[in-house]
Amino acid sequence: MSKLSMRKISEIFRQRFELGLSYRVIADSAGISISTVSDYLARAKAANITWPLPAGTTEDELYDQLFLPVRVATRKRVVPAWQYIHTELRKKGVTLQLLWREYRGQHKDGLGYSQFCNHYQKYAKTINPVMRQVHKAGEKTFVDYAGMKVDWLDITSGEIFQAEIFVGCLGASQFIFAEATASQQLPDWISSHINMFEYFGGVSEIIVPDNLKSGVTKAHRYDPDININYQHFAEHYGVAVVPARKASPKDKAKVESGVGIIERQILAPLRNVTFTSLNEINISIKERLFVLNNQQFQKMDTTRKELFEQIDRPALKPLPSSKYQYATW
To answer: Can you name the residues that pair with 187 across neighbouring β-strands?
Structure first.
């Protein structure tokens, strides 16, 4: 359609808006087709052009208003719920490709596989660095002792003791267990593992301890020696002990994060409380641990408890029929 002069366009508007003439009469008067009259009036309506034209309107300005590029409405692609993708990815056998196929099965015009992966990686970078690591459900439990200790007073002797704090953290859900013990010696170490699995209600496939003397008699980067009693405990519960490698922060990032959380949210608030037994300490830890595990993540709309119930608990192996009995070797 050829552009009309500003004078002719103004005449179309005048005859229509001021005189109220029909499209046919206007077309005959201006010597143009009815379709051209209809098109110009439709463009004027879309551009909210009123009559009379504002004083000083130039021909270029009028053309710009009438002939702005038409925006073609595009259908927005449905973007996956990335938190769901991140959670599902932790389940055994689940891959990004499988999740993408399920997504495309529901949304035929959805993201391509490469775009799907790129968007997921961008999402993963926005959440806690420890949460970015994808550990499969029920696969690993990370264990260590906190650096902070808790004082308690023996009211009989007046002596002050320091309780050690054992921390265990499931890899997939970050569900945390913690308890106070008298020492880091092997009997307490194994007892804490037993209590931890009782707390979880099941057993993971692997335990990842730091190279602690209680569990590892000889530290080695690739071939550490496991304490014989710890080995028997592992056999009883059907779990493999795979110590974290030295100078490999990623091997124990989960438990280090868990230890930090326990220190900040449980131990630090208890620093001014006077305890008179290990049992009192553990009662306070248990109460605060419940709150911690049910507390929403900062950048995920879920909790450790919810993730535990969704992905880790169903994948844990059942507890043995009897608890492990510690033996002295």
So the answer is: none
| pLDDT band at residue 196 under the 50/70/90 scheme | very high
Whether the pTM exceeds 0.70: the reply is no
Residue pair 120/83 in contact by the 8 Å Cβ criterion? no
- Tell me the average pLDDT across 50-72: 74
Neighbours of 328 (CB within 10 A): 6
Which is it for the CA torsion 25, 30, 32, 37, positive or negative?
Answer: negative
| Residue 215 near residue 227, CB atoms below 8 Å | yes
Alpha-helical runs (H) found in the chain = 6-13, 23-30, 34-46, 59-66, 82-88, 96-106, 113-126, 129-132, 186-200, 228-237, 253-262, 278-293, 304-307
Cα radius of gyration rounded to whole Å, the chain: 35
Residue whose C-alpha is closest to residue 297's, from 135, 127, 87, 68: 127
CA distance 164 to 64: 76
